[in-house]
Amino acid sequence: MEQSRRKFLIGTSIVASGAAIVGYNDTLKHAVTMTRRGEKAADSIYGNAASTEVTQKDGAITHENGFVVQPSVCNGCTTHCSVRVKIDTKSGEVVRVFGNPYSLLSSDPWLPYKTPLQESFKLTSAWNENGLDMRSTACSRGNLVYEKLKDPFRVTSPLKRAGKRGEDKWVSISVEQLIKEVVEGGDLFGEGHVDGLKTYADTKTLIDEQNPDYGPVANKLCVIGTADEGRQNYMVHRFVQSFGTVNFMGHTSICGLSMRAGEAAYLDDFVAYPHMKPDFEHCEFLLSIATAPAQAGNPFKRQAKLLAKGRSEQALRYVVVTPILTNSDSIATADRSRWLPIKPSGDLALVMGMMRVIIEEERYFKQYLSIPSEASQKALNDYSFTNASHLVIQNGDKKGEILLDQSKTPFVIDKTDGLLKNANTVLEADILFEGDVLLEGISYAVKSAFLLLKEAVFEHSLDFYAQQSGVDAQTITELAREFTSYGRSVGVDCHGGTMHSTGFYTTYAIMMLGAFVGNLNYKGGMSTGGGKFKDFNGSCYNLLAYAGKQKPFGTRIDRARKAYEKSSEFKRKIAQGENPYPAKDAWFPFTNALESEIITSSANAYPYKLGALISWSSNFIYGQSGSEHLIPLLKDPKAAIPLFVAIDPFINETSRYADYIVPDSVLYETWGVLAPWAGHLTKTTHVRYPILKSPNASFKNGEPISMDSFMIELGKALGLGGFGKNAINGTTAKFDFDKPEDFYLRAFENVAMDGQNPVPEASDEEIAIAGLSEYIPTLQRICKENWKRVAYVMCRGGRFADKSSAYDGNKMSKSYTKAIAVYNQTVALTHNALTGEQYSGVPRYYAPRLYAGKPIDMTSKEFDLLAFSYKSNVLSAASASVEILRDTRYTTYVDINATTAKRYGISHGDAVRVRSLDGTIEGLCRVKEGIHPLSLGIEHGGGREGEGALSVTINNERKEGRIARRSGVNINKLGLRDISRLNAPTLSDFVIGSNARQAIPVHIEKI
Ligand code: SF4
Description:
Blueprint: H1 2-16, H2 19-23, H3 25-33, E1 54-57, E2 60-63, E3 67-73, E4 82-88, E5 93-99, H4 117-123, H5 130-133, H6 140-144, E6 159-161, E7 169-172, H7 175-184, E8 185-186, E9 194-195, H8 197-200, E10 221-224, H9 232-243, E11 248-249, H10 257-266, E12 277-278, E13 285-289, H11 300-313, E14 317-322, E15 337-341, H12 347-360, H13 366-369, H14 374-379, E16 391-393, E17 411-413, E18 420-422, E19 434-439, E20 442-448, H15 449-457, H16 462-469, H17 473-483, E21 490-494, H18 503-517, E22 526-527, E23 541-542, H19 568-575, H20 598-603, E24 612-616, H21 620-623, H22 631-635, E25 643-647, E26 660-662, E27 672-674, E28 684-688, H23 707-718, E29 724-730, E30 734-737, H24 740-753, H25 764-769, H26 776-783, H27 787-796, E31 798-800, E32 807-808, E33 811-812, H28 825-828, E34 865-870, E35 894-897, H29 898-904, E36 911-915, E37 920-928, E38 935-939, E39 952-954, E40 957-959, H30 963-966, E41 1000-1006
Parallel strand pairs: 7-39, 10-11, 10-24, 13-14, 13-21, 14-15, 24-25, 25-26, 34-38, 35-37
Antiparallel strand pairs: 1-2, 3-4, 4-5, 6-7, 6-26, 8-9, 12-22, 16-20, 17-18, 19-20, 23-29, 27-28, 28-31, 29-30, 32-33, 34-41, 36-37, 36-41, 39-40
Helix pairs in contact: 9-23, 10-18, 12-16, 12-17, 12-18, 24-26, 24-27, 26-27
Bound molecules: iron/sulfur cluster.
């Protein structure tokens, strides 16, 4: 043990050498010369610790001069926790960041909302040791991410490329020149004419007369964003929908779309895409597959905290199924936590095997699955219901459809008398029915949804599932029995580990385990979240509606949200008597958006070629598996994107190929309104407003340039609706929209005034403590008589329902009301656009594959390890420039098992080359015991080539990139291409198109 730890430390120092010396010169110098030794510390107990912001004596709180503590939202990862920021009032600089005790994303329990602000400091202080219970924290990233604010590589003025795309040469331009050139176009780079955005601001002319379904010219603008950090509604509703393009996408397709889509299938809602999280606090058993609380997932910090509480203070037992041992495990809690190693992408087979055992041994909750409707559920006082008993037609034109009456209510077979009845009138329906039913003189062969699931599960033996998953049959059997031994307070979770070519069905299957125990809406089971307060469309304003808002229509560039069968292409082929399959390329009818399809689709002009791309904090070149192959398409303006405008405070791996960089605000300089994704059971809304002055160049009205202000000025220059005079709809009047505050403060007002009981008014003392005095004139101007209520929300960082409102008995107060789809008709009626194959409407085992069906060889002799990425609990895509974080995690490695290392003659710390069919990376090897021997893991967040990692020249001045930021490896350079599709785009899940970054067959060798 000691021996291996020693080796590890030696290995780490070898790994950190070279690059480390550059970043740590100062530390090393002092370590070697000991020049700081002997200096007297400021305090004999607290050493040289920074001064505190408040002092507490016998419960009395005094705010120290020189500091103000203000609430904001952290953007260190996509959890977006509410935090408190300590600011030095003299320098205006951030000193420290910690949790907001009113918010459940940073505290549990959290403070009752009515707690006076002054009291909140007392309750989180050492008074009566209260701070131990009420501790409110930021994670390591959240503590330090504020370094970005002052990063020397931050862009504060608009930049225009001075060389060819990707040459990293830029010149600063004025905000006026930026707007003019982006709108008007012209010979902007001495490379010939470039059309400006005004060319595409046309919602009347069709892109292609032959294919009218492609929609208007406006669709040739694509806007790509990121995770919603509180401003996505602003971007989508005020700009994208005012411009009239259908093409907006976030980052889900390269993040966790497999999980989102599988859960949407389970919840039968491909529009809102709701998603679920376990009720960590009251779970008795948790099965975490392809994710690991405390290591990854969202809400990262909250679930880590609740997991630790659950296993130490409550009865929680849990199993984490991942290829690598993670921070979820705790030796201190003995067998309450268990790691089950699995080979990457083996999850689907594992879960199908579990289902086989559960069905064979009849361990599923029959009584629950027999509830056929919401009416029956209510009559039985149950918590949720499924469509397990609904009858699926097996013959004729309606094959695959659920048998409905004229009011669209499903028919079921009543278990008590065997008769066909409306589901609302039956309390216990037959879930294993197969037979013919007669309806209005027509005979239908039908099977119940649960029977179809059973048939799909029984397509393979347990031994087959064991072989495919790499988990032996006995372990699968025991896990299935364990999962079904705790009643309904059982959670099941998954996330980014499902991002492989069969990730959609993997998630759908994982979630289906929950239906077997009836855990949805049940205390300790699964929740779709506690909801939020009305924000952009509320009782005071509808900020999403305005005169001139377009109704975008047509085919999206990613061919999402539309079936190939509805295209002109399909109809033409049918009219000409041709087989309509294959289409030219894949279509994704029940996926909302696919960022990973934009560049290749435009290069292929299928469905059409884009004219312009606006990216906002997007970085698909770093985050998309296989994106190396997109770089030549981005470099050549004629290939895919003639005009590329990137809104970002940094030049990242993607925006370095842009034509213009528009500086955005950073962290606490930013506006926003947002709610947690899930993992909360009570109503929660966070707000963020500038508590720091932006250093960015300003527009004439004094507003610093950011995404928000750029959109206003761009909208005005293009003559779009939704900006300027009378562009904001109040319930009784209209208001002008010239600055971001005109929009966001009104959203805050909606939040404050939501419901029967608006929030109270903030006291003068609270306004002073929260540092809101500067906002008073603006608040009074915009929010009139409600301004003190808005201040109450701002002082607390949002509006939060109290913890006591989470449950109604054993039921979650905010419950999901639709049927769980044991059988999903939407999926079942969808055809693969290349093969015509119909997808399975129930979870089913599919081997890893290309879109057109060819299996991916997962047992190749040459590529005999499966590479996977795992989330870092320290690094994130947002933390590249936070150098201080490297004290905790200097770099990222190629992780392999000790037996694998031995097989290849590789030692810990060796330089290695990893090769896939389509990419190669080099890095340093970390040998561990806690990783599956058939796999190779890479922590996400290293190997950066943007945000200060590479040198850039701005105004002829060269800024040297920092080697520490380049350190580590990026798995996405190994990503595969799908050769079954048009011009081989990056590999994706074959049903919903999520980018496949997991389970890549690779070869490793020592360099
Ligand atoms: S989990 Fe950490 S990095 Fe992520 S938002 Fe919260 S505090 Fe910030």
